[in-house]
Fold this protein.
Amino acid sequence: MISKGATWNSNSCRIKFARRFVSALLHMRNRNTRPGSLTIEGVRTHTQRIKIAAYLSMAQAVGSRRAWSRAVLSKHGSRARRHSRMGRSSVGLKKTRVIRSYPPGELGQAKKLRQLVPGGKTMDMCSLLEETAHYIKCLATQVKVMQTLADNFSK
Amino acid sequence: MEPNLGTIVRSISIGPNREETGLESLQFREEIHRLMTVPPENGSSFTELLQLPETQAMELLHSAHSDEVVPVPLSGEPLHGINDDHKSYLPSFNGNLTFPSNKVLIERAAKFSVFASGEHSPETSSVPSDSSANLEKVKSEPAETDSNPNSSQLLVSDPAVNIKNQRSEKRKEREKKGKGCTKKSKIEISQDAEKLPYVHVRARRGQATDSHSLAERARREKINARMKLLQELVPGCSKTFAMQISGTALVLDEIINHVQSLQRQVELLSMRLATVNPRVDFNLDSLFAPESGSLADSNFHSMVSPLLWPEIPFNGNRQQHQQQWNFDALHRPLWGREEDNHTFITMENSLLNYESANSASLHSNQLKMEL
C-alpha cells in the first residue's frame, strides 16, 4: 500500500526510480564480489558508487524533460564516459570556457543554489527556480525510496 | 443573410477543434457558395468581411485545394496593406495558399470586422459577437491597443502576433498579456520568417508601455510565482513570510538548506546501503539470517562516522508505522551531530536486538508495500 498523499505523478516517478535503483544495486553487487568492502576505503568507494547510481537512476527516471536531469545524465552517463575515453573533450572544454557572469541583481544565495542544483550554472533565475522545485520533489522521493530500502535490507 | 453568416462564423469557430481540414474546407466552400449567390447588400456579408470584391472571393474559393499549409509566410505582406489597399491582399493570397487553417481566417475575419467598424456600418461588429470566445478575446486585445499612439501599424500586425500569442498561450498555458508572451511570439515570428519590421508589445491596461519595465515586470512576476511554489514544497517555510516579496532572501536560505539536507540524506543512505549490500545474498530471506547480525556488527564498527547511529532507533518506529514517511527522525541526526557521540554504545545494543527480533516474511511484505 503506497502512502496516501502521493499523486499518480509522484508514484510513477517513485516506482521508476525504485526499479532502476534496485537493478543498479544488484548489478553493482554482482560486480563487487571480492570481500574488500570491509575496509573503510572500500566502503567509501562503494558509497560513492551507490550515490552516483542513485542520482543517475533518478535522472533516468525523470528523462530528458528537465534541465537538471539532462545535466546529470551528461555528467555521469555512459555516453559521456565514452566521449571522454575517445578523447573528444569538446563538451568539457565548452563548459569550462563559458565563464558565466552571475547576474548582479540577485543575491549570493543564487550562486549557492546554482552550485547545488545540477546544471544550474547555465540557467537564468527563472528557470533555476523551476528546476529547483522539481529537483526538490525528486530528491524527496529518492530519499524515501532509499530509506525504505535501507530499512528493509538492514533488518 | 444574417443567419447564414452566423452559421458560417460558427462553423469556422468549430473548425479549429477538428482535425480533418479537408472536411472543413468542403463545408466552408459549400456555405460560401450559398452566400455568393446572394448579392451583398449589407456590410455584413462574407465578401465584405474579407474586404474583397465578389469575383476575387470566388477565385479564392476555387483555388482552395491544398489545406495543409499554414498561412504564416503569406500573412506578412497582406497584413501591412490591409487598411490601405484591399486589392493588394489578393495577389499574395492567391500566390500561396488561399484558405489556410480556419483558425487564422476566423481571427483575420474578426480583425477586419472590428477595424471595419470605423469605416463601414456598425453591422460588421455584430459578426464577432456571434463567434466564439476565441474571437472575443481577439477583439478585446485590439480594443486595448487602440489607445496606443501608433495604432494603425499595431492593429495591422496584430493578427499575426495574435495567432502566435494564442498558440503560444495555449501551448504554454499563459494568461498574461505582458511582454513575456510577446517575447515568445517574437521568437516564433522570427522562426516562421515573419517579415514584420518591429515587435509589438501588448500592454496591459493602466500600466506603462515601456518595453523595459514590461519585461521587468513579467520577469518579476514569474520569479515570484515560482518562489511561492517553492515555498510550498519546502516544509516549514510557508509560515515564515508567507506572501511577502521582501522575504525572498529568507525563503532562498530555507530552500538552500532543504536541498543541502536532502543531498546529505542521500549520502547517508547510500552509505547505509553500501554497508548492507556486501552482506551475504541479496534476496530478502537470507538477509535476515542470524549470521548477518555479526557481519553488520563488524561493518558498523569499522565505520568512521557516528552519524549512522542516531538513525537506528528510529528504524524500529518505522517498522511499526510503515505508512508514515516522516523525516523528523532523520532531521535530528543531521542537525544534532555534536551530542550523539556518547550514544554510540547503546545504539549498538539496540541494533542487535532489532536484528534478531524480526521475521523475514514481514520484511518482504513491507518492502513490496512501501514501494
